[in-house]
Write a structure and sequence with these properties.
4-stranded antiparallel sheet; 17 strands; Reverse transcriptase domain-containing protein; DNA/RNA_pol_sf; Retrotrans_Pao
Length: 487
């Protein structure tokens, strides 16, 4: 039944786009939970028969079972998240005339299933938001609890029984690390940073064990995507060699896997600031989103940075999202992979622009492939279907003038395309962004895209019998030139 149940809005959100970006913009962060959320929404009487279950009184299987029907949505049903989210948003819509826009928007936009996250610029805003959000949810008999915040002033205004465990004795002055989970990512409240806590299980050195370990790293924002790519590549190699689920690692892959597995514990040293903008900087002049893309024989990936420029001339760059994918099993060329990376870059930036909700956000796209720049800027000729389709996707959300060239050694997406270990990742420009983004003005030099080389296609046919088609083919290919890259 799970396969045919409509999932609702839950099936429209790709797993790699679970980011809740609005929750990381302000200085004061808030997190809460809807108590027993699925059980707060009733199932229509005509649908309750689909949720029947049998119950044997006192566990006596010799007696006929009793038949019961769930009157509320149950945990584990494919439809429950979508129905509950719809009910939550409907409740916010009904309260739009009675409560502030901030509270309504928080309920509508800042919840992922039952977890709510938000960030505002001051304690007073946070206190008012919590107060109104609780009152709004109370109108629908929904109970918000397990509140946590990086501000003790906010926590002190919430009843102790409504706060998360450990939040009531929070003392930021002591500097003791207080850890919470925000959409699966470790959030250190005292330092207001994200980190990774990975419990390395003793999985067998088989394809099944490798998959279990790689999949256990939950990184929805792609902060450590270049590191995870190394593990994905090892898993892909095992799949390409058609190893069974319980076959041992080949001798040539075992040292690579053991080195990666040992380095997995070092992810805990990585600390990423939660808030995009430092509290000491005021009077923002402009916001920019810079997205870099790259590809190699190992994989392709992108990374996006929010660049904030203040009226004082100071600049702040923050990594907001990264992605890294292994190359397709089917052999293809580097230009095609570079073009695929550009498509992911355009899609990622479009998603971030929608999620960040920043007015007049300027967009920039960077690639170290002059072939890709040539494709995007070319209006004069037709391309092969593969190229044409991807150019259409890129240009549907971006303008050719937004695309720029970056040298390979300065391209942070290079790490996402080939994969790196933890130490190299920390020392690279992956978290800090390229140095030229920190300058007062962006480089303005124009990059001349070279005309692509002419490629001649020919056919040589050997046939015992006279074949008139051969002459037609030779006539066509011998005099025909196509100006296209090796894609």
């Amino acid at each position: 039944m799970q396969d045919i149940i409509t999932r609702g809005d839950a099936e429209k959100v790709p797993e790699d786009e679970i980011s809740n970006q609005p929750a990381w913009k302000g200085q004061v962060a808030i997190m809460c939970d809807v108590e027993r959320m699925f059980h707060q929404f009733h199932v229509a009487p005509q649908d309750q028969d689909y949720l029947r279950f049998l119950w044997w009184e006192d566990g006596n299987m010799e007696q006929p079972p009793s038949v019961f029907r769930m009157k509320v949505h149950l945990f584990g049903a494919a439809s429950s998240p979508g129905c509950a989210n719809f009910g939550l948003k409907h409740l916010a819509t009904q309260g739009a005339s009675k409560f502030s826009q901030a509270a309504v928007k928080f309920i509508q936009r800042n919840f992922y299933v039952d977890d709510g996250l938000a960030a505002v610029d001051s304690e007073q805003e946070a206190i008012q938001l919590v107060k109104e959000a609780r009152e709004l949810c109370d109108t629908g008999k929904l109970h918000l609890h397990k509140f946590i915040s990086n501000s003790k002033e906010v926590i002190d205004t919430i009843p102790k029984e409504e706060c998360a465990a450990g939040a009531t004795n929070l003392d930021l002055a002591l500097g003791e690390p207080k850890m919470e989970r925000a959409l699966g990512v470790q959030w250190c409240i005292t330092s207001d940073t994200f980190s990774f806590k990975v419990d390395v299980k003793n999985n067998p050195l088989t394809r099944r064990g490798v998959l279990s370990t790689v999949a256990s790293i939950f990184d929805p924002l792609g902060f450590v995507a270049p590191f995870i790519l190394v593990g994905k590549r090892i898993l892909q190699r095992m799949c390409q060699e058609k190893l069974g689920w319980d076959e041992p690692l080949p001798p040539d892959l075992k040292p690579q896997w053991e080195a990666w597995l040992k380095d997995l514990q070092n992810l805990s040293i990585i600390k990423i600031p939660r808030c995009y903008v430092p509290s000491t900087f005021k009077q923002v002049q402009q916001y920019e989103i810079h997205t870099f893309c790259d590809a190699s024989v190992s994989g392709y990936g992108v990374c996006s940075y929010l660049r904030t420029v203040w009226k004082s001339g100071e600049v702040q760059c923050t990594l907001v999202m990264g992605k890294a994918r292994v190359t397709p099993a089917k052999v293809t060329t580097i230009p095609r992979l570079e073009l695929s990376a550009a498509v992911v870059a355009a899609r990622t930036a479009s998603f971030l622009k929608r999620e960040l909700e920043i007015q007049d956000l300027q967009e920039y796209y960077w690639t170290d492939s002059k072939v890709v720049l040539g494709y995007i800027n070319n209006d004069a000729r037709r391309f092969h279907v593969f190229v044409a389709n991807r150019i259409q996707r890129i240009r549907s959300t971006t303008e050719p003038s937004q695309w720029r060239f970056v040298a390979s050694e300065q391209n942070p997406a290079d790490h996402a395309s080939r994969g790196v270990m933890t130490k190299e990742l920390v020392q690279s420009n992956w978290f800090t962004a390229p140095s030229f983004l920190w300058q007062g003005e962006l480089p303005q030099e124009e990059v001349q895209v070279k005309e692509q080389a002419k490629v001649f296609y020919g056919v040589d046919v050997v046939c015992k019998k006279e074949n008139h088609s051969k002459q037609q083919i030779c006539n066509y290919t011998g005099g025909h030139e196509e100006q296209s890259g090796h894609v």
